[in-house]
Amino acid sequence: MVLAEEFTRYRPYLFAVAYHILGEVQEAEDVLQDVVTACLEAPTKPIQHPKAYLTRMVANQSIDRLKVLKKQRAVYTGTWLPEPLITPERSDGIASEGILSYEVLHALENLTPTERAVFVLREAFDYPYREMASWLNTTEANCRQLLRRARQKIAVRPTAPAPSSGLETLMRAFLHACQEQNLEALLQLLHEDVAMYSDGGGKVSAAVHPVLGRRSVGKFFLGLARKGLATIPVVVDVNGQTGFLYTAADGTPATLVLVALEHHAVKRFFIVRNPDKLKILLQSVTK
Questions:
Q1: Is residue 136 within 8 Å of 147, Cβ to Cβ?
Q2: How far apart are the first and last CA of the chain?
Q3: DSSP state letter for 47
Q4: pTM of whole model > 0.85?
Q5: Which among 60, 140, 170, 278 is placed 20 to 30 Å from 163, CA to CA?
Q6: Where in the chain is the domain with CATH 3.10.450.50?
Q7: CATH 1.20.140 boundaries in the chain
Q8: Contacts of 151 (CB under 8 A, 6+ apart)
């Protein structure tokens, strides 16, 4: 029971590790369930460094599970986007530890499972190479190489999220331009390399392929506005940043929009419409 008690103590942190490696809430919960089961079956003698011991268990279980998930995602209908996560309360130091932006999570899909684990452990939790090497049964030199390759592949570095007030102001201007069908005003809010990714999972309508380029993205959103989809959303806090949630007539979450800014312009739109990935946001609209 000693290790199981330590698991309970570190559970929010361990969930963050699993979630950022896997990109799915329920998959992370399943990994933690496997780990706690192993803890209950473990000898009762105290572990000298329980947090490190548990991190090793969670990281390796997550790597193994991600190998299976990547095969499933390869045949996913349309673009696969990470499942959004309601940001834990800021007052909970352990729970809020290690939150990576949604843009980074999306980019992590380009990595191998081991590259992703090394990136998460280093960039989100600042673990030393020696410790990571011992957990992943490799060398410090290989960990450094894995991280170097990961950074090169994703070309996105973890950054502080845009201030909520500034992002909401920009989105109000964006929605106004959409409602007015003002393409030129809309283009001024978009980065020249803007891209839009949409995930419907084959269950609801969504763009199957990414929409790339300022004018293409602008025209895409003007088309949505003409269909009456430029209403005012609910502001939610997901993945450590401000998100914009649209609800159906019955109040259930229908569309989550997350954006990434660069130089005060929108560089990435992430539109999550797969209803299975929005269930976790129900509490945000029923408070």
A1: no
A2: 37
A3: P
A4: yes
A5: 278
A6: 164-285
A7: 2-154
A8: 119, 157
Compute the CA torsion angle 276, 281, 285, 287 (nearest 10 deg): 130
Topology of domain 2-154 in CATH is: Butyryl-CoA Dehydrogenase, subunit A; domain 3 (1.20.140)
What secondary structure, in 3-state letters, does 83-140 show?
CCCECCCCCCCCCCCCCCCHHHHHHHHHCCHHHHHHHHHHHHCCCCHHHHHHHCCCCH
Structure tokens at 184: 């030129």
Residue found by looking up tokens 């300022």 in the block:
214
CATH T-level topology, domain 164-285: Nuclear Transport Factor 2; Chain: A, (3.10.450)
Compute the residue count for the chain: 287
Q: CA dist 161 to 99, 165, 194, 259, 272, Å?
A: 10, 11, 17, 10, 19
What distance in Å separates the CA atoms of residue 55 and residue 43, rounded to the nearest whole number? 18
Q: What is the pLDDT of residues 199-257, one digit of tens each?
A: 999 999 899 999 999 999 999 999 988 876 656 788 888 898 888 888 888 888 889 99
